[in-house]
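I would love for you to help me understand the pair of lines that follows before we discuss the fold together.
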Amino acid sequence: MSANPFTQHPHDIGETYWQHQRRALGFAFQLLGAGLAALVHALLPFLFVETGSRTISKLHTAMVTHRRAAPIASQDECACHQESAGATAR
């Protein structure tokens, strides 16, 4: 029997479908806001100087440090992201 594509990923990260939908929509709206701020910043560089980077940093923290430990297979897939994040921080 194959896994349900609507619930497999949320289950893998310890969320229900509805919890994951709410969280993902929250990320989407924050990214849209940051994108609009970046567009305005491109035209008027004195506005929204740190909005994009601050939003990305906040979302990264929420996504990486505030989630339940993923199964081992998912952690292996994400190892390259963790290594590159560590290299960037150095």
Observations:
- Residues 31 and 55 are 7 Å apart (CA to CA).
- The helical segments are 8-12, 17-43, 51-65, 72-89.
- The two ends are 45 Å apart (CA to CA).
- The first helix runs from residue 8 to 12.
